[in-house]
Amino acid sequence: MVRRGGIREFLIVVASGLFFPTVISALPQSTPTSATTASAGNPAHGIYLVFPFENAGSSSRLDWLSEGLEELTIQGLSAAGEQVYSHAGRLGELERYGIPATAKLSRATMLHVAEDLDADFVVFGSYSSDGKNLNIESRLLRVNPPALLPALRESGALESLMDLHEKLTWRMLSANDHSYPLNLAEFSKKHKAIRLDAFEHYIRGLSSNDEEPRLRELREAARLEPDWAEADFALGEVYFTKRDCESAMTWYARVPKTHEHYAEALFSTGVCQLLLNKPDRGEETFAAVQILLRTGNATGVDFPEVLNNLGVARARQDKFPAAQADLRRASALDPDEDDYPFNLGLMAMRQGDFKGAAVLFREASQREPDIPEDHALLIAALEKAGNKEEAEQERNSVTEEFGPGGLAAVRVGDSLAHFERVAAELDPETLRFEMESAQSSAATSGAADAQVTPATHLRRARQELSEGRLDAAEREYRAALAVEKSSPAAHLGLAEIARRQGKLDDSVKELQAALAARESAAAHTTLARVYLEQKKTALARAEAERALKLAPNYAAAKQLLEHLPGGKAPVAPPKGDKP
Fold this sequence. Notes:
Helix content is about 55%, strand content about 10%. The chain is α/β, with parallel strands linked by helices and about 575 residues long. The chain folds into three domains: about 160 residues, Rossmann fold; about 120 residues, Serine Threonine Protein Phosphatase 5, Tetratricopeptide repeat, CATH 1.25.40.10; about 120 residues, Serine Threonine Protein Phosphatase 5, Tetratricopeptide repeat (Alpha Horseshoe), CATH 1.25.40. The strands form two sheets. Strands 2, 3, 4, 5, 6, 7, 8, 9 and 10 form a nine-stranded mixed sheet that branches. A hairpin with a 3-residue loop joins strand 7 and strand 8. Helix 13 runs antiparallel to helix 14 and helix 20 packs antiparallel against helix 21. The longest helix has 18 residues. The radius of gyration is 24 Å and the shape is globular.
């Protein structure tokens, strides 16, 4: 089984040495000399969130330029060494709010989304064309403290789009930082010249909702620009989603090692090798990914998804001690993920250690109580270990929760390979944290205490939390609250710490404080999960329903509500932007 949770829905592109895509859902992390600290001393440096440009002209034929200018801005800022949320990242956040991707957003809504993502700057704009000439206007909105910089404009022939936008991006960075070190010629050298027709096909491909038009447009972009890695990677992604692994690996292989998507391409290649049952090749690939990521981040830490897949590859070759070491390390790094103890349980079953397997499957079911397979394998392991009474108790308990047909049939004598869980993507939060840490360690670290902002404390806290240092994380969250008493992000962080410590009442109080400061579907859903841990099903259902009222398409709330006894997620009507 391949588990895929949405890395490409929250990508953030970072240009720094080796390029890694990173991502996070409203929880950016950083070291003390983070982007916010850097922006205090150097205002051009920070995290950028780019929105589509508005077509202010009369020709709908150029509607593709709306997302095209967004993508050009993302690529331009990334090439200049800035941290930028991707187009997919922005869409993911809008989905969390229940806002349609096509909705026209007010500046207040843009600012609200940027605040939740800990972005430092928002970029938006407009364009118009008479079919021959093009006018582009770009705006830069600073998030904290809020300030809208003067509009920047460029005009010229439509065919000169790339040059016009390149100059506009350079002017935006220069205007925001009067000591910006690059002149226009030096800035231009950082950008690959792309044919306009190839870029149009690329954007149309990315924007298409249908598979065949998407492939057709992207293949044409790759044909027109044979050495353009963005099109190659995008094609690899489409084929990977189709599980056409042979085609996916062909396109992934064209992504160069210096490209920002190389780590993703290599990781997905390893997933394909496991799907094609080539564990020896998969082991080689994931070992290479592990080395690449270790040397490309500031602390040299491992990534649990890589360790998981490396362990799976080794287990398939009966390299059990090494596989167990990999999976135990992954489980320790990510104490909330159930896949790692689950795979360890499968490995124990293969080796005839049914008591050990039962312990591991129980751990997996405690980490994620609403996954039927965790309980089904737990019951099978208990029965095989001779614990018939305990197995029956577990069966009765989960039958009440999932219904009579809710558990998968498991026969221990059969191959358990189809239960194996392969991580299909790298964890966005960890990647984001590591790349920010790497950038920070490479930068000067003499930021004055006066430059430390609430966002700095939040990023420090998230770093500490990701490393499991709960006391240090709590200190940073409380430092953020000392400056900004109603910070919902700080209350959410303290709620997570309390939950991990088993202080569920304290977690509820912090979540309620976060919601009092700012309602969000994610906070309501998290509160629902805590209520579930307290066995307060009615309260959990009420919170899940509140989440869906705010964001009718929020998948996490839908899934939670569907798993509640008698729960059924409502069908969401179309909803527009209501800033």
